[in-house]
Amino acid sequence: MRVVLTGGGTGGHIYPALAIAEQLKADRPDTEFLYIGGKRGLENSIVPETQIPFETLDITGFRRSLSADNIKTVLRFLRGVQSSSELLEKFKPDVVVGTGGYVCGPVVYAAHKLRIPTLIHEQNAIPGLTNRFLSRYVNTVAVSFDGTQNQFPKAKRVMYSGNPRATTVHRANAAEGFRMLGLPEGTPIVLVVGGSIGAKAINEAMLQMVPDIMRMPDVQFVYVTGKRYYDEIKRGLDEAPWVTPANLKVLPYVERMPEVLAASMLVISRAGASFLAEVTSLGIPAVLIPSPNVTNNHQEVNARALEDEGAALMILERDLNGRSLLEAVEAVVNDEYLRARMSERSAGLGKPDSASIIAAELRKLAVRAQAIRRGAL
């Protein structure tokens, strides 16, 4: 099978696409791929490292207010459709998969016009603008959150698949996570992470909370500041009037996050959909601080979905400070029954077979298209 993957801008769009590729390759090693991304997104640094052939389009998103830039966006979209058509006709894929971001628009739409089977995956509880637009043209829409199928009323077929990133992370080795952190296996770990670049609000609350983590001496805090904030946080800790607690490890970035996640007993984080898929795949209790600076406030909706099921506690950023964060952490760390219940509820939301579900759907689409071309249907 020949598969085109497209998705870009953020890791939340890119890593699910790569998880699908990983599953397809595991099922059929002779599967061939082409990844089409945008010129400005993170995919430019992430995808080439996977050795998947990579092409780019010059594409931007629409501004939500009236703007002359939207005219340029329309022109870029039309040029993107033309460029995508040329790439697709050359590669001749059996199926095209879109995982979100502006670049998906012209690629998936071009595939539709060329009658190539298409599937889009929506990571968030509230769909993005591009996936809303594409849903009426594709063969299948796959959603991460059960109950959000009705968000795509014009789609031909909507299926609950979970997030394929869950499959990748479910295989993570906890022992390797402890080794990477230089900690004995079984050490209770609270992982604090704000994403690859970090989250200013979480960092500020953590600095306020640090003196009080000595109240939990048996718990190891692994605090991932993000590369942007690491020097600032280290300076703040060094200049503080108190000694940095021995049970605090501060890191700018974690290269192999799945293994560290697998070793953790509690996670404090934002509420990006792909990261939540990883957390629930491993059944980890979470304290979630959704970013308010995202389209349609979708992170709060993502976080509330876990909170409503008893898998997480949520603190809105406007209520976040050292005290509120400490209270949430102590509530979970000091209550073994609550922690076990949250873990069970989290695992119940996880879909570790997500990538397999999507891979099976892609094979069905490809086989049906091949049968149509042969005149068998």
Automatic annotation (TrEMBL):
What is the topology of this protein in the membrane according to its UniProt annotation? Answer: Peripheral membrane protein
Instruction: Give the matching Pfam families.
Output: Glyco_tran_28_C, Glyco_transf_28
Where along the chain is UDP-N-acetyl-alpha-D-glucosamine bound? T10, G11, G12, N124, S196, Q299
**What EC numbers are recorded for this enzyme?**
2.4.1.227
Name the catalysed reactions: di-trans,octa-cis-undecaprenyl diphospho-N-acetyl-alpha-D-muramoyl-L-alanyl-D-glutamyl-meso-2,6-diaminopimeloyl-D-alanyl-D-alanine + UDP-N-acetyl-alpha-D-glucosamine = di-trans,octa-cis-undecaprenyl diphospho-[N-acetyl-alpha-D-glucosaminyl-(1->4)]-N-acetyl-alpha-D-muramoyl-L-alanyl-D-glutamyl-meso-2,6-diaminopimeloyl-D-alanyl-D-alanine + UDP + H(+)
Described by its record, this protein's role is as follows:
Cell wall formation. Catalyzes the transfer of a GlcNAc subunit on undecaprenyl-pyrophosphoryl-MurNAc-pentapeptide (lipid intermediate I) to form undecaprenyl-pyrophosphoryl-MurNAc-(pentapeptide)GlcNAc (lipid intermediate II).
Q: Under which name does UniProt file this protein?
A: UDP-N-acetylglucosamine--N-acetylmuramyl-(pentapeptide) pyrophosphoryl-undecaprenol N-acetylglucosamine transferase
